[in-house]
Amino acid sequence: MFSSHIYEAATSGTPPLSATYRGHSVDDVAEQFLAKVGHCVDEGDFTSVLLVDQSVLITDPDNGRVVSSGEGIMREVLYAAFQKTLETSDQWLTTRADSSLSLLSIRSAGFGTFSSGPRQRMIGIGAAMWSLLMIKGLAPYPISVGLLQFLLNDCDFNSLTRDFLSVWHPLVRAVGDSWVEAGPTGDISTPTVRSHLAAYLGLELSSLVGRDQPSHDAIGLELVYRSVVGSEPPSHPDVQATARNFPLPCRNGFTVTRYLRGVVGGSDRFLSNVMASVVGPLALTARLSITAGDDLAQPIAEAMGGESLADMLYDYFTGSGIPCPTLFEEARSQGLFPSVVDLNHITDSKFRSQMWSWAISGSPFLARDSGSIKAGTISLVVLVDDNDALYLGGKPASLRPALLASGTVSFRTCFLEARIPASFLLKAARATYPTTEAPTRRLFIHHRLLCQSLNGIAAHTFS
Q1: Superkingdom of this entry's organism (predicted)?
Q2: CA 430, 433, 437 angle in degrees (round to 5)?
């Protein structure tokens, strides 16, 4: 795994250490991890969060028994910690080009730089989490890819090449091309160029009359910089706090940026691999592995008029929105969905596939650093009978009837696996619609899959 090479490099020459994070929920452990990252920011040394031997134990609050652990839980903790840093993002991040987040730096009314210890610490923790997430092969979405490239190259503006912008910030590249082609005496009144000048430089066209070539070039460079990175130069304390902690400096001299210089393809290839983790319905369904015995799958297919489990899942993942609004609102009012999920995006085309990925792997992205992913599988779906030995995981046997009756999906994050009870699907397929619960069979099954995906996020009912 790529992350193991990073961890080995970060701890090379230091005494072997280990870390175990223990809590009653992913949220508990995420808070512990952020506290550790904060300590690293204070010390300027991130060795303790880059240990080769790190583990997470989710325990039962009643008896202390371990209910979940493993690599999948570690990924989920990292993503939950990253999400927590976004809760304060309106204080130091803002939406810039291509709807991505980049740095928001503040100046006081007296035109001096606004800076405070707590603010710099908050920014440092957030920037460190971007790197920690990427090391695991997970995209720190929606952070600007251009900002990440800038930081991975030690704030070298030249790393934002035209080819790079063409891939990750095509609108900025188009504006830059228009600006270069216009020259100091050409037409810069196109709507896109005009809007970028106003949004990122605060300039109207009338103030740009009489440019010479050097000033024209300088304005073009600043326009790109402000569109992608932020409004202030690298000397600003906010940018410095970001650049100081993002590389995750360690006591042995390791930094992520220095390490990537020795990797074939450098930051460009690294970012391409990381951002490829953003999952959509087609990517998910193309790499979905389904295991279902004929004795379980055949009755369901017959009741569904020939539609297989693979057909059902494809139909669900390529859909969007809320299938059964009344039922969904009832579930939401009962607090069944985790607060970390932003349901405002439920109509997005990638929402369903990302929620499934989140439940099954620990984040709404492809676990690029997982051995299973390298083998070509994003998600393993297993259709199981009512006596399946792995279905309950570590839960008491007394819960089996209720879980089966509700169609609860057993998500096993360390194995990228979902175990679906065949009996519930068969019952849903054979029901007569409309019912008091749903107008059609298709919508009811979609509703249950959506609810189960959301319920599975950070829940760890199963190990």
Answers
A1: Eukaryota
A2: 105
Gap between the terminal Cα atoms of the chain: 22
d(CA 433, CA 440): 5
Residue type at 117? G
Contact 267, 273 (CB under 8 A): no
What are 57's strand-pairing partners?
A: 22, 69
For the chain, list the domains and their CATH numbers. Answer: 2-155+234-275 (3.90.1750), 158-228 (no CATH), 281-456 (no CATH)
> Which pTM does this prediction carry?
0.78
Looking at 190-337, list the stretches that DSSP marks H as alpha helix, in order from N- to C-terminal side. Answer: 191-196, 213-228, 237-245, 256-261, 266-275, 281-286, 294-303, 309-317, 325-333
Cα–Cα dist 374/364, whole Å: 17
